[in-house]
Structure prediction request, 564 residues.
Amino acid sequence: MTCAMNAGEINAFLEKEFPQIHINGKVFEVTEVKPESVTIHFTPGEAHLRPGGTVSGPSMFTLADLAAYAAILARLGPVALAVTTNLNINFMRKPSPGNMRGVCRILKLGKRLCVLNVDIYSDASSALVAHATGTYSIPPH
Amino acid sequence: MTCAMNAGEINAFLEKEFPQIHINGKVFEVTEVKPESVTIHFTPGEAHLRPGGTVSGPSMFTLADLAAYAAILARLGPVALAVTTNLNINFMRKPSPGNMRGVCRILKLGKRLCVLNVDIYSDASSALVAHATGTYSIPPH
Amino acid sequence: MTCAMNAGEINAFLEKEFPQIHINGKVFEVTEVKPESVTIHFTPGEAHLRPGGTVSGPSMFTLADLAAYAAILARLGPVALAVTTNLNINFMRKPSPGNMRGVCRILKLGKRLCVLNVDIYSDASSALVAHATGTYSIPPH
Amino acid sequence: MTCAMNAGEINAFLEKEFPQIHINGKVFEVTEVKPESVTIHFTPGEAHLRPGGTVSGPSMFTLADLAAYAAILARLGPVALAVTTNLNINFMRKPSPGNMRGVCRILKLGKRLCVLNVDIYSDASSALVAHATGTYSIPPH
Prediction:
């Protein structure tokens, strides 16, 4: 199993095709692409915080969704625009202040659907902050 | 069953306590509070779009999460800061360009957990765009 | 919008094609098929109970899954065997002893995927016991 | 981190407290309890099958729910009866005929809620058949 795109190629693709995700600054960056997992780092800005300095739930959802999207790009390349059909996320611990990362693993890559998991961590701790499972529809390619 | 806060009070509370949600402009506004449902309107800005002008999944998650939070405020008042523990969202149709709304109904309000549904629509169509079910933890109050 | 099968036809189809669901007695029966919803009644037996006489979670999952399957049959007819790809269920209240029902509404019937909701009630109460959202894969037909 | 109960103790507890799960024969058995995971084996009977000999979705839900329950028992002991509040399950591959197993890992064990994952496999293959994430309410203990 090889990867169709590396981290730099995915970042360049996202920047070109999804400029909106960087509209508040470049806060998301794919840092590692391996056959079994893709890691995205997230540097929260003011817009991503909640009272007390904690990172908001919607920001973590964005991280999960982007990690999933990047993992599908890594596997299939930029041939097809996958679409989120279902995402289930459990928020387990208040994230520590500071940067976070999402680690995505593909559970199944079928012809029409891709199912994957994303684990979300604070850089400051090894405890799992949130866990998501998502299903993405893969257009014919 | 009466409401502890009306639409204006919830908007004022969110603006004061969660100024971050308005950091890209005031795009979310509670427009209707009834005992059985709470409606939030969403005026997507550039940051909420995806290629082709469609509203992004994370923006709809934000709408669902905020609608749920507002519905709990409407019922309990500003005594307790509910925390999202689980949110499951199905994206069913590409939203029409333009404004959207989320309609939240509480399925169960227990002492410790609140379970609710959010239906998301484009203003331009009556077809359901997305459907979310969420669980919120209610702190002792 | 019309229905491709009525309640009697769906019950006969299930009995013929899925005899296993009746192996502990005929506990599930489609009782109403309308264009907007399908209702299944459930008469729990000893095998479906938990200590204290409450109906088990897996039994309610079975009810939800069967209600969804029946709703797809009602719409498409027996041409295609839909397959569950995702089911998310929230258990909200302990069911009252006695019979239950599941009411399924299709949220989206696409070419490849069907998304639907199931509300589960005890016959003895109007309070919602459980709520499920499911996605089913529709084979080419 | 140690375990409060071992496999034999959990099996004995389930048999005594939940005799209903064995009403169609003893098909579920806890086979391994480790601090980081609990494994349950499942020997499907006629009642658990679907046309073509495949194991039904509700049977896999039962396996997931029981694996989760056993994992909480392993950690807390028989002091508290955990209750399923949410379970999200993705079915990814048709299981191979024959026995199956569920492997449960606790993601978070809080005072009030426990969140965990269950991976479901056919014994005949290493490919993941289904993946569940569940939330259980822990009564005061």
Notes: The first strand of chain C starts at residue 28 and ends at 33. The first helix of chain C runs from residue 7 to 17.
